[in-house]
Amino acid sequence: MIVKLPSGYVQQNPRLTIANKQLELMHRYLTEFGLSPVTRSRVSTAQGLGKGSKFVGLLGPLPPADEFFDD
């Protein structure tokens, strides 16, 4: 996108510069939070967090796992 200035010169539209910068920022956010396909494979979960956590009984007893997955 090119804009012609009142003096006759041709310049890149400032909106394009802003859009490119925002696209770059979004890409960095996606990689930081593991939302891109490449970084999604690097995200791991904590296994067995509920067994030894000090917050286990805070909300009451946990229902059996089969209750959520009806066949």
Quick structural gist:
This protein has 71 residues and is mainly alpha-helical.
Strand and helix layout:
Layout: E1 2-4, E2 10-12, H1 14-32, H2 37-40, H3 49-52
Structural description of this entry:
The protein is mainly alpha-helical and 71 residues long. 38% of the residues lie in helices and 8% in strands. It is built from 3 helices and 2 strands, in the order ββααα. It has helices spanning 14-32, 37-40, 49-52; strands at 2-4, 10-12. Strands 1-2 form a two-stranded antiparallel ribbon. The radius of gyration is 25 Å and the shape is rod-shaped. The relative contact order is 0.07. The model has no long low-confidence stretch (mean pLDDT 78).
SSE run: EEHHH
**Main beta sheet: strand number and arrangement?**
2 strands, antiparallel
Radius of gyration: 25 Å
Total DSSP E strands: 2
Helix coverage percent: 25-40%
- Average pLDDT number: 78
SS class: mainly alpha
- What is the first-to-last residue Cα distance? 56 Å
Which range does the strand content fall in? 5-15%
Task: Tell me the strand order in the biggest sheet.
Answer: 1-2
Instruction: Compute the number of helices.
Output: 3
Estimate the global geometry from the Cα principal axes: rod-shaped
Attribute tags:
two-stranded antiparallel sheet, 71 residues, 3 helices, rod-shaped, mainly alpha, 8% strand, single chain
